[in-house]
Amino acid sequence: MVFNGKQISILIVDDHPMVREGMRSMLQSPEIEVIGEASSGAEAIRLVERQQPDVILMDIRMPDMDGIEALRAIKEARLNSQVIMVTTYQNTTYLLRSLAAGASGFVLKDISRQKLLETIRAVAAGISRVDRTFLQRVLQDLSQPESGPASRASDLVEPLTPREMDVLRLLVEGLTNQAIAHTLGLKTGTVKGYMQTIFEKLNATDRTQAAVKALRMGLVQ
Fold it and tell me: What is the rounded average pLDDT for all residues in the chain?
């Protein structure tokens, strides 16, 4: 399997040579081409600008510039590479900060080879992926009742329309605006409009918060 008729190009970013070597070994596959390695966030940004990989496997805790800072810089520079954050730490803050900064994936370093390849394929195709076991733990951490006025779907001042619910379900599944538009037969700009309305109705500031609130309130399963 190849992505858009070519191999998926990968940049591995981790400050430990042994980890990079292990990832390179895991990624040996006809569909994958590892085109570079970096040992810091700053070095990663330079390589991304030069090599433009399809997907970046980015460690979070690194010297010089950590992975989340590098991710933010890559997104602000409007570079097209998709970023999967890779970490040893089951840290709720890391997950939420990564998703808020624009990560397309979040996996733990004990991930199996099969799951890692599946995550890379999905992210390369525009579908976000987060380690499901860790996500469940995060949602449990966030499961205390809402302090705001709306903690259940019935509490919403203005309910979501059927089309807004369609968009919200796909948002929770991790699809990008472009992927949602393709799935629902809409224009990307139309999806952005729905997103803004959903954020307002849920009193959410971003996609991550909207997804968490939707799950908390029982709007989606």
Answer: 86
What is the average per-residue pLDDT within 108-132? 91
What single string gives the DSSP state of each residue in the chain? Answer: --BTTBPEEEEEE-S-HHHHHHHHHHT-STTEEEEEEESSHHHHHHHHHHH--SEEEEESS-SSS-HHHHHHHHHHTT---EEEEEES---HHHHHHHHHHT-SEEEETT--HHHHHHHHHHHHTTB-EE-HHHHHHHHHHT-SPPSSS-SSGGG-SSPPPHHHHHHHHHHHHTB-HHHHHHHHT--HHHHHHHHHHHHHHHT-SSHHHHHHHHHHTTS--
pTM for the structure as a whole: 0.66
pLDDT at residue 217 is higher than 70: yes
Q: Is the pLDDT of residue 88 over 50?
A: yes
Class in CATH terms, 153-216: mainly alpha
Least confident of 2-11, 17-26, 42-51, 62-71: 2-11
CATH 3.40.50.2300 residue spans of the chain: 8-140
Q: Which residue has the higher pLDDT, 64 or 20?
A: 20
CATH 1.10.10.10 in the chain, residue ranges: 153-216
